[in-house]
Specification:
- The protein is mainly α.
- 61% of the residues lie in helices and 3% in strands.
- The protein has helices spanning 5-22, 30-39, 41-49, 67-76, 78-85, 96-108, 128-147, 152-168, 174-182, 198-207, 211-221; strands at residues 53-55, 61-63.
- It has a two-stranded antiparallel sheet.
- The longest helix has 20 residues, at 128-147.
- The model is unreliable at 51-62, 112-127 and 186-207 (pLDDT under 50).
């Protein structure tokens, strides 16, 4: 991957956002694992296959089990996710709970519900038919996470949280982030092209909880 500040900033911002949503206990390692995965090659292969633990700076062990598999699942589902995020029928905000319910109803063969139904938070502006587009993407990401050894319930939760975060920031470069993970834009030398408006990253930081705080902390450490 090139050292262009825009591509690196996009990966850092989105890695932190996705980790905050799907694996908050692994947020400290989100940027490192995403950059390693996006670079490809032996580093990516080692990241995906090695024992899921890293040594914390204090000398203790912090077990991480979600993010390497999640980057791999998102990259493998890149085209389906980008299609779902860009679908004109999915124009309203959705929550993790909404997506989990939609995926379950899809698997049960039940007709899509209007809103969330039950005790889940209501999404009155988002009809069940629209949710089927995203539910298919969540189910695919979950399937790939389960192939990495994650349990079905945990895989569904991680996949739904990640897709909800991507959907919330679909106008701030979610598709480009997925492309970077998947290796799109890499030239013959193995490097990638860069190009991310800083204003988009600032909007994303304002919309995703914890991202602005993490960005400030990284700035102070440099």
């Amino acid at each position: 991957m090139s050292n262009g500040p825009d591509a690196s900033a996009r990966l850092e911002a989105w890695a932190t956002a996705i980790a905050s949503a799907s694996a908050p206990h692994e947020t400290d390692f989100a940027v490192h694992t995403a950059l390693t995965y996006a670079r490809g090659g032996r580093g990516r292969r080692a990241l995906v296959r090695r024992a899921p633990s890293v040594t914390a700076g204090s000398g203790g062990e912090l077990v991480t089990t979600v993010l390497p598999a999640l980057w791999d699942a998102l990259a493998a589902s890149c085209e389906l996710l980008k299609s779902a995020l860009g679908s004109p029928v999915v124009a309203n905000g959705v929550s993790t709970a909404t997506l989990l319910l939609a995926v379950q109803r899809r698997r049960d063969g039940a007709p899509p519900a209007e809103g969330t139904g039950g005790s889940a938070p209501a999404e009155p502006a988002t009809g069940g038919g629209e949710l089927l587009v995203l539910a298919r993407a969540v189910a695919e990401v979950s399937r790939r996470l389960q192939a990495h050894g994650m349990g079905p319930a945990a895989a569904d939760q991680a996949a739904a949280s990640a897709v909800a975060a991507l959907h919330a920031g679909r106008d701030e470069g979610a598709g480009a982030f997925l492309g970077l993970l998947a290796g799109e834009g890499r030239d013959a030398s193995g490097e990638r092209s860069a190009g991310t408006p800083r204003t988009g990253l600032r909007r994303l930081a304002a919309r995703v909880p914890g991202l602005r705080r993490s960005a400030r902390a990284r700035g102070r450490s440099r």
